[in-house]
């Protein structure tokens, strides 16, 4: 055994050390935020019960900070930025708003895989692909069960699952090649931009086809209306004419109007993505407004009651359409629906004396955290605005950012950075005082949205780094492979939100939306989170990434666990495509049973190799 091996921070070397604390302080520096290893060996004196308690506390706090910061702070900031940039719903849905929903997974993967730890990339693979496998099997099975049966849109289903399957296949190819360099990492990350282009093209093509279909329907309705008018002028009794129209659902002249009403009731459930729902509604609205103008002119020329009824029906439908179309904005549909579900489940808005003991405990835990976040993350929504909070944030938000990035003592052009930041903060503070009211934000709220986005990222990065640092300790103490810790500890924690909220959405009638979130959300996390992690890891070095180059049996078993995650991810997605095609994209009970069985086989296989790896060590 070499001298370097004897000085390596491993469990065997720590157990052989005469002074354990001194050895750990000198040789164990893998953590980047908090030195949990030093704390456990020097302060807790390797007390196992204390480690168990610490594991529970750190896990709950870190995962809560990740999910609540992304949901309550990052998502509103991204939605506001999207509106300010006038992004289309399609573009926002696959970029900014998707980041708000997948931020915990994305930043955990980036910090785990892009750090200085050589095994961090294995942790990132376990986290990203493990979470993806869990969501696309167990969570999706629960969504299908709560929906009884789902009819997926063929094109969108193939797009999302196909891209996800190809991403897993590409990483498997890298594994077989034995290394990943910078161009290979960029190639993997570029899949994300290809995906965006495909999404935008599909939306444009679907909109074009819908528009052509609506034009043909309107021409048919106009011809029918002219025929009715000729019958009316030729002497048909008006009362009989109106009666016939009423008995026949206003006959064919109201067909387009009735179709739209039916869509508002049930039709939106047939479309897999929110951008399709919104796009279809916008098309109906535009075409029916034109139809309304045409029918209004006809009414003025002919002055008969039937035209009045048509005009009233279409105007009423347009008004309903304007009201309903707002419901399909992505930022106010999926993300806010999840927020309402969680709020209902926890019910923190009850008065104190009505709260149960555990609700009081959670409230006392959240209260100081929320105060600190509210004083460091600017609000992004108008209904959250408070003038005095905004004035304070002009100082606290930039100072918090400087403190986290360790730049409080930095200099710019030989001038201390605070001499630049504080005057700018003062000017902004005076502007807030002058141009805003107590509950009405200023016109430059977008500036606060940008700081809200940046500082939300800081909070999420802090929480993710806290988790990754603690996993360094767990891996050291338990000798468990990092990929396995990623596919269990990190994957279960980051997937908890999807596991509880997506099936609940399905139970409320949003099954297609919940199913889309299971695939598109995990695809986004994989391409963006793992893609950026690969780029950061390979910018200065080549990653040795092979099943066949490791010399020891334990290292080979560690790599086999990584390969197991990737192989099962690829196999599962491939079988999903095949089974969905055979069932005509109708997902029912048999499909959900397959998903649960697939994950059970994967979990027991990975656990077997993990136990074998520990025994070999």
UniProtKB/TrEMBL annotation:
Source organism's superkingdom? Eukaryota
Membrane spanning stretches: 48-70, 91-115, 121-144, 156-176, 182-201, 412-433, 445-471, 512-536, 557-577, 597-616
Keyword field = Membrane, Transmembrane, Transmembrane helix, Transport
Molecular-function annotations in GO: monoatomic cation transmembrane transporter activity
For this protein, the record's Gene3D superfamilies field holds: NCX, central ion-binding region (1.20.1420.30)
Report the locations given in the UniProt record.
Answer: Membrane
Q: Which InterPro entries match?
A: CaCA_antiporter, NaCa_Exmemb, NCX_ion-bd_dom_sf
Give the way it sits in the membrane.
Multi-pass membrane protein
For this protein, the record's Pfam families field holds: Na_Ca_ex
Report domain Sodium/calcium exchanger membrane region positions. Answer: 57-200, 449-605
Please give the PANTHER family that the UniProt record associates with this protein.
MITOCHONDRIAL SODIUM_CALCIUM EXCHANGER PROTEIN (PTHR12266:SF0), NA+/CA2+ K+ INDEPENDENT EXCHANGER (PTHR12266)
Protein name (Swiss-Prot/TrEMBL): Sodium calcium exchanger protein
- What is the source species? Tetrahymena thermophila (strain SB210)
